[in-house]
Amino acid sequence: GRLGCFGWLLVLASLLFIIATFPLAIFMCVKIVNEYERAVIFRLGRITDRKPKGPGLFFVLPCTDNFVKVDLRTVSFDIPPQEILTKDSVTVSVDGVVYFRIHCPISSVANVSSAHSSTRLLAQTTLRNVLGTKNLAELLSDREGISVSMQEALDEATDPWGIKVERVEIKDVKLPQQLQRAMAAEAEASREARAKIIAAEGEMKASRALKEASLVIAESPSGLQLRYLQTLNTIAAEKNSTIIFPLPIDMMQNFMQRK
């Protein structure tokens, strides 16, 4: 009914043309689309049905109908490297990859001029907007969360275009050379600090153990002599030519008192 009287006259003329040129006109009317494709038919500029045709055979009227094929397979594309200023004023270069598919052929044809190119441009701006709210630490450690945020934002924006964004991944984050050197120096200093702390804790534990051992030896003077003999046994086991005989410090104190 929306075609109007003149439109219906053209459709009737097209039907008469098919009847007059049958069976040659059948080659102009029968079209085929593959399993992964759908056809959106326009009759005198209007969409004939809210459901796309296919897969398989479908019919169009010559001179009044034309159709657009829409591929329903998942499409992937790379987001070009984007220079992004993070929340903590650090400039980084980030790129990614987006996977999407068309779930509504009617909307992808009628609501946007080029669904693929529009999605690519929107992915670039979305990457900038999402990463601009993150600091460098979050950008390096929470890539999965950033990918989910980008997917949700893209999926919501492209839904009127009949597009379903299935997955978004951050491929690479490139830092400036000066920042890489500064981060490496910071990490090295942090490791050295932890190593010194661990060594100091070990020395403290060793000193406590030596204190407890000295208290035990002080209760039995003969235990100190046994410890001397154990030390000599250890030195002799290494096949050294020099043997050290420890001299008790108490003997030296007697000579020092006489002086």
TrEMBL record:
Its main location: membrane. The keyword Membrane applies. Residues 28-187 form the Band domain. The chain crosses the membrane at residues 6-33. The keyword Phosphoprotein does not apply. InterPro entries: Band-7_stomatin-like, Band_7, Band_7/SPFH_dom_sf, Band_7/stomatin-like_CS, Stomatin_HflK_fam. Keywords: Membrane, Transmembrane, Transmembrane helix. SUPFAM superfamilies: Band 7/SPFH domain. It is found in: Membrane. GO terms for cellular component: plasma membrane. Belongs to the band 7/mec-2 family. PANTHER family: BAND 7 PROTEIN-RELATED, STOMATIN (EPB72)-LIKE 3A. This is Stomatin like 3. It comes from Seriola lalandi dorsalis.
